Amino acid sequence: MEKHQVLIIGGGNAGISVAAQLLRKRPKLDIAIVEPSDKHYYQPAWTLVGGGDYDVNDTVRPEASVMPKKAKWIKDKAEGFEPENNLVHLASGKKVAYDFMVVCPGIQLRWEWVEGLEETLGKNGVTSNYRFDLAPYTFECIRNFQGGTALFTNPGTPIKCGGAPQKIMYLACDYWRKHGVLDKADVHFCTAGGVIFGVKKYAETLMKVVNRYGIHLDFKHNLVAIDGARKEATFEVTQADGSKEKKVMHFDMIHVTPPQSAPDFIRNSPLADANGWVDVDKHTLQHKKYANIFGIGDASNTPNAKTGAAIRKQAPVLVQNLLDVMDGKQPSASYNGYGSCPLVTGYGKLVLAEFDYNNNPIETFPFDQSKERWTMYQLKKYILPWLYWNKILKGTA
Fold first, then answer.
1. Are 325 and 331 in contact (CB under 8 A)?
2. What is the 3-state secondary structure (H, E, C) of 291-348?
3. What are the E-state strand segments in 170-220?
4. Does 161 participate in catalysis according to the annotation?
5. Which of the residues 141, 173, 190, 341 is marked catalytic?
6. pTM of the model
7. pLDDT tens-digit profile of 195-216?
8. Backbone phi, then psi, for 310, in 5-degree steps?
9. Are 344 and 47 in contact (CB under 8 A)?
10. Axis-axis angle for helices 135-144, 164-178 (nearest 10)
11. Among the options 104, 141, 161, 190, which is catalytic?
């Protein structure tokens, strides 16, 4: 049976950057990465693709090109765990043994949890930036919109990039404003949540943006069904007393953020907490039950924003703590819940939200980041993608 010192489940941002950082610190480590995909995506740019301001082809590269040279790529899918025996079951029927494991398979998009959605995606004005092939269609919908009702949804589950459902709405409104269509548009942000953003400092700026574009905020609206042909979206609306009622809204275009969950093979495993996420200590990222297992990224139950920026701060903590445990010591590094959300509020406008577990702003720059800035938009469009491909995935940032 194949066995490795460190087995990493998932070859996305988290898995690749952790492997690269481990190998920089200890080049002789025997590391294998389980990842079934041929392609690796830079998903944060899909918002700009949807706004017509980024080429979708620049967001994808072959998985082989980002795999650390000294790591072994097991091109297969993990399907189950035997943590008591240090074994992982693969889709091919093989088993792989490990001394230590890092679990970071990402998040699962649950299109099927919205009735009728899968059948109408990519047509009838129904789109989503959460898929590589659909982000260009989002811009097609925005460009072809001549007035009417535009809905932008946000589900009641944790999602990757919590700001993404809003960002595309602000870009759409800015596009329509520039093309004289905004005054003919009835724009709604239909969110299952009860606030525009969880951090007050940035929420205040976003409310000004909402008012600038004349957007209607429909809180406690969770999308449950969609009829593309009839252009009708059905929401489950939670009332003040906690009761729920159905509400049907007409649309001319709708951008859907799908409900999301931990992958099924995680949810149905001994590694999961009661809600299905990898059960780790939120500061050390070590599994609460299995000391030789760590979790990082979107599949973990750490209560931070599920963003690539969070992974960038989690990775060095996990690497240090994993090496500590390998050396027979206690984990010494701590993650403070840092998350970042580059909130695009229009073309050339961005609010860089950065905050910790307690929703306290922890900002990088010496100016007020709650203000919309052209420089921060350039950061998102040019600098962050370059950093990702050239530094983060190589373990140097």
1. yes
2. CCEEECCCCECCCCCECHHHHHHHHHHHHHHHHHHHCCCCCCCCCCCCEEEEEEEECC
3. 185-191, 216-218
4. yes
5. 341
6. 0.97
7. 999 999 999 999 999 999 999 9
8. -65, -45
9. yes
10. 30
11. 161
